[in-house]
Amino acid sequence: MRLEGERGNPSRVVVVSEEILSRLRSSPGLLRRSNVRFFLAYSGSEVLSLARASDPSLILIDYALPVLRADEVCREIKASLKLRDIPVVIAGPAYPPEFEAACHEAGCRAYFATPLDVGALSSWVARLLGERVREESRLSVLLSVKYGAIVSQSLGCSRDLSLAGMQVRSSTKLQEGFCVSVRFTLDSSHPIATLGRVVRVIPTEEGDYDMGIRFIGLPAEARNRLEEFLETRRA
Question: What total of structural domains would you count in the chain?
Fold first, then answer.
């Protein structure tokens, strides 16, 4: 089935599992590329069916697929004269290490440990497809949470930014559901300040936390500046 990136005449097809596509939507740069389209598979058997039918440039799947695991899918791909040259990228748990070892033994091109660094995965996939990679700028972000009369502040950096919100990496963990004050600067002008709600918290291997923050009541002036900034980055 056709999904993201259907404009024009796409020259690259990616067969992708449902879990990974849902994560890529949080960092939509790759999904916007007009010459890449994504075919969604819900199980290992569907991955194989779509690969046989669509001649994809890449297979991008998570380890714990129904029916056939990713390493089993990869073995089937590499055993086929028609499909064996298609690179297979798998995302799965870092532990136990036997999972990753089984995928490499089956012939996968790369294995990304979960929880995924979506930015790193998107950049890697873009390079593999021969797409130009735009380096994401990292904005310093000040997060403030008020506990009665006490205000706690922590500094982080943005890893993804949109009109709806941002993903912030910080050494300080905030709880899901917390309302926070968010302050960041796009350029040399005055900073943007708004409220946000923590909607997702994922620990990183480095001991930090990737926190998804949804903007609440972003002022119109700030929204216009942010929209202009995002358009400039996409250009």
Answer: 2
Strand order in the sheet with 58-62: 36-41, 12-17, 58-62, 88-93, 110-114
Quote the domain boundaries for residue 214. 140-234
Tens digit of pLDDT for each residue in 167-223?
888 888 898 999 999 988 876 567 888 999 999 998 887 788 889 999 999 989 989
- DSSP string for 48-76: HHHHHHH--SEEEEES--SSS-HHHHHHH
Return the CATH number at 198: 2.40.10.220
- Return the closest-CA partner of residue 162 out of 71, 111, 226: 226
The pTM of this model reads 0.56
Give the C-alpha separation, 155 to 213, whole Å.
14
In the listed set 78, 98, 128, which residue is the last one of a domain according to the structure? 128
109 and 147 share one domain: no
Q: How many residues does the chain have?
A: 235
